[in-house]
Structure formats: C-alpha cells, structure tokens
Amino acid sequence: MKIAIKRIIVIAVGLLLQILLSLSIYLFFIEKLFIIHLLFGIFSLLLTLNLIKNSKNYSYTLPVIIILILFPLLGTIFYIMFSKNKRRSKVLKNINQSESDSKSKKYLNQDQKIRKKLENNSRIKYLTDFSGYPATTGNDVTYYPIGEKAFESMIEELKKAKKFIFFEYFIVAHGKMWGDILEILEQKAKQGLDVRVMYDDMGCLTTLGKDYPKTLEEKGIKCVVFNKLSALAGVIMNNRDHRKMLIIDGKVVFSGGINIADEYINLNSKYGHWKDNGIKIEGDAVWNYSVMFLTMWNAFRKEDNDFTKFKYKFSTKRNSNGYVIPYAETPLDNEETGEDVYLNIINQANNYVYIFTPYLIIDTDMINALTLAAKRGVDVRIVIPGIPDKKIVYTLSESYIEPLIKGGVKIYKYTPGFVHSKVFVSDDKVATVGTINMDYRSLYLHFELGCYLEDVAAIKDIKQDLINTIEKSSKVSIKECSTKFFKSIFQALLRLIAPLM
C-alpha cells in the first residue's frame, strides 16, 4: 500500500507540474503580447463552434464547451490536453493501429448463412455491421448469478486447459481468488502451455506492485500491464482497460462483471453482500473474445502473425440455440457501441426491460429512452446498489433517480449490499451481459466488452436473477429521492463535471 501511495503522489505531482508548466508558458507570453490573448479567444471560439457542430452527445461535451466559453485560455489548454490522446500516446496509437489493422479485422468474418437469416433483425444488423463482430449460433451459454459460482466453474475449466490460457482483467488482487487461479496458471505454464496475463495498471494500483510483471514472467507467465501509469503520461491515463475475460484453449470463455479479488466472491467485502455475475460460453462465439484479446495483446507485444492457430475447431454440430455476439467497446472509434446496444434494447422493448447497474450516471439520450419506454407501457426496472462503494459517485447517481421515477421508471436499491453486475434483459428474448457500466467512463473512455444474446436459453436465467434480486431490494419512492436545496446544488455541479470524472 505504501508503494501504491508513493506512485499516486508521484503521478499526481507530475500531472500538476505539466499543467503548471503549460500555464506558466502561456501566461508569460500573454503578459507580453495582447494579440496572443486575443488569438486564444478566437481559437477558443472556433473550438466551441467545432464541438457544437460535430458533437454526437452534448451531455458529454457540454462541460468542455462551458470551460472554453468562460475561460478561453484555460479551456484551450484543457481541450488540447484531453483531445489529442491518440496523437500523443504511443499506447493508444498502437492499440488504434492493432484494432484497425486488416490483419486483425480479417479474422472476424460473418457466416453468410447466418447473415441471410438476420437481414431483417435491426439489433443484430447494427452490431455485425458497425461493431465488426459476427453473430454466431450453436453456443452453450451458462449464466452465473453470483461471483462464487462463476469462480468455481473457472477453476474447473482452468484445470482442463491443454494449449493456452488468455487472462485479461481490470482488477487483480492478492487473496484466495487470485491465489487459486495463479497456482493453476503457474502449473500450466510449467507444462508448456501459452499462459498470458493482462491487467490494468490503474485498476491494480493498490493491489499489485510495480514489479509484479517480473514475478509472473519468472513463473513462465507472459504479462502485459495496460497503459502503465506515469508522471509524464498526463490525462492519457484516463483511458483504461475495464474488460474482463478468461479464454481457455479457444474453447471456453468466462466474462461478466467480476474482477479477480476476494470481494467479488463475497470474501472480505466492505459493502455488504457483493451482487455480481458471470457468464460462460462454449462455442463459436469464443472466437470473438479471442480476437479482442489478441488484438489488444499484440498492441503491446507483437508476437502473433497468425491468430487462427488459437481458433478451436468444434468437432460436433451444435443446435442453433439462438444468437450470441460478443462485442468490444473502444474509445478510439466513432461508435458508442456499448450505449447504442443499450438504447436499441430499450427502444425496441415491448413488455419489459430489467437492468443491473452499479452506477447510474446517464446522458439525456438514455434518460429519454428509459422514460419514453415506461410511458408507452414497458415495465422498466433498474437495480442499483443499496450500499455504495464510492459516496460521491453514488450522490451523483441519486440525482438521476427523480426524473426517471417521474417518467415511470421503477428504481430498486439492493438492500443487502452492492450491485456490480452490468446486465440488460428484455421481453424474454434479448439480453446483454458484460463490463459496461451506465456511466460516462464506461460508455466513452474505457475499453470495454459485452455479449449480446438473442433467443438463447440462458436469458430465462438472467431474467430470474433480476426478479430474485428485486425481491430482496427496496423500491425507491419519489419522496425518498427528493433532496434538500444545498444537496441539489451539489448534485447539479457533479452532473456538470460528470463527463470529466
């Protein structure tokens, strides 16, 4: 912990020095030359007009616009720092190249027989055409309504691994969960399997030491640390790898909300009962996850010239069992895939939409979609935590409850503890399970993933999980979400800066 605190201080001081240095340079010249101040004002105006013209989401860009208008100098510096990540960051450049590189995209081919069947399915058509990830059939899908059950299955499947193990998680922390997994990974590496571990440096800042990759490499486990924190990295550190997936032999994949830390399996949880979920898939859909992982991995360690050697060839023809489409969300393209999948489910719902989300920090598009669905008679229910993990974020989330309830949306607080699942299910027909929270960070800044399910048997289990959880939760009343004057002012300020948090 002491090492982590030192790293945080160094990084914070480095970022502050960068800002102060930039300000000092600009202020020095502005004091000397009035024309420079005028030019900054003009430049700020042009940037504002450009944002107004090209913004796809004003809820997200409004704080930047306000800063540019009120503080031309500071706003311009701020805009330059936050908008040039792709050009300034070697990490993001490499990921962008790896994601768009034809050698990666060519592995994601849509089966034409499946495509023909789905010509009139607008939800799936959007995903296959714009996310680039193909729809698959013949998958066995298992939904786990709690982290402990998912963990048990993960251990069972890890012991069966024969060729390779790909592991990518936002948080990894020492304890029983990681200890049991690491023991198997080390054994498999000694047996000659290709074992790869990727974790996010920000997510593991307080849980793993700076030199932990060396420890893994000494055990024969290849390791990549995503977007290492640095005092010189600046705001580029804002883009994190929030994905969670465990791929075994290209045959089986685990994903969902759980990270690799003991609270996710209800050991030493500080926030009451930790309600999370997992999903296991066996079938052709695993390949989508494999390409996601290999694309990211090769952005850091370019060692795979041919991804197909990791593709599992299923020997038996499986029953159709609906459609499964694992998809990625990236801040480096022009598609808000995660949010669009959510909006499509809401907008096309006829009977109900049930939602798990730990954070409820949403834009006007999402608010309007949820309330419009409720007004046309759709049963819209959202389950949020009863015990928050971040009080300021929770206070911000509470500010969105009142307009949703007034619009007919039912909000439930999970009384026993904290909800960490990210799940949508609708009309007994469609669902999505993944890592994408209903907040600005997940929807616009992080690297994320989800899995869209349609006409899959596991959907009934997802629905039942939500029903069971709602029965243990308390419904929020309009009186309960009404706030006092000063708290409402504080929430309004939090809303204004929410896209920057």
List the helices and strands and how they pair.
Blueprint: H1 2-32, H2 34-54, H3 58-70, H4 72-83, H5 85-88, H6 90-100, H7 102-105, H8 112-117, H9 122-131, E1 140-144, H10 147-159, E2 164-169, H11 176-190, E3 194-200, H12 212-218, E4 222-226, E5 245-248, E6 252-256, E7 273-275, E8 278-282, H13 286-300, E9 323-329, H14 337-347, E10 352-356, H15 364-375, E11 379-385, H16 391-398, H17 401-406, E12 410-414, E13 417-419, E14 423-426, E15 430-434, H18 440-445, E16 448-454, H19 459-471, E17 474-475, H20 485-497
Parallel strand pairs: 2-3, 3-4, 7-13, 10-11, 11-12
Antiparallel strand pairs: 1-8, 2-5, 5-6, 6-8, 9-16, 10-14, 12-17, 14-15, 15-16
State the helicity in percent bands.
40-55%
Q: List low-confidence stretches.
A: none
User: What is the structural class?
Assistant: alpha/beta
Share in β-strands:
15-25%
Number of domains: 3
Multimeric state of these chains? single chain
Question: Would you tell me which CATH topology of the largest domain applies?
Answer: Endonuclease, Chain A
Anisotropy-based shape: globular
CATH superfamily of the largest domain: Endonuclease Chain A
**Major sheet strand order:** 9-16-15-14-10-11-12-17
